[in-house]
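The following block was generated as part of the benchmark described in Methods. Ligand: zinc ion.
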Amino acid sequence: MNRRNFFTFLSTSAAAYAIPTRLPFEELKHFNCSNLFEEKKSAEVRLHGSEFEAYKQLSSKIKSVKSIVGYGHFNLIGFDEMLRVGKNYSKVGTFTPQEIALYESIFYESASKYGFYGEKVLANVTDEIKKSDTVKIPRTGHYLFKTDSVDMYEKIRKEVGHNIILTSGVRGITKQMDLFLTKIVRSYGNISIASRSLAPAGYSFHGIGDFDVGKVGFGYKNFTSEFAHTDEFKRLIDTGYVNIRYTKDNPFGVRYEPWHIKVT
Ligand SMILES: [Zn+2]
């Protein structure tokens, strides 16, 4: 089944779902998901036309969920809570079977197809972050997992100083999907480029303990290689116990991320 037929199938099968529900993954298995993506000789995978439009629509719908639940809590919500918000708020609207199927197909697609070689850390689209396993870090809008991540963060702040701050902590599947889709849209549909600067949903270690730090007042530069030239970064490395997850020339197909602290 080619991609166009896949989408045609989804739209014609919509009537079969009187109550919008999740398209069971068992059914998705009948499709050859690799056909969802156009693979080129260059290994760059890029979306076109109606497929790209469907991604953009899903991205904007997930953002409207964020506007309802708030920036902080959005970091933690799972797939089912996202669907509930859609159903309960007309401003968002119920997720259609096509949107749900697209979300699931993106989640279950093997990321190596478009050049991301990291391991999957959250296996199921419905995997959730338990709020009780996390701690909200004041003045950041972010959460960290209790014990290991919080301990590491507090140790860093004690040694490097309060000029270093959490810029992104726990991220559930919905938040990672939001970031990944945003990156795809900004990359004009080039999924390969998007996955070089952001792990696809399910593949991010933010889902199990890693976090990002930055220099207070450094803004977006905290997410560029410029962070590696700050005194704060130097002191971070000088502690001797802080490890960076994505080093230069890492084997995962990910850019150098000096701000991303490996915990797990
Ligand atoms: Zn990170």
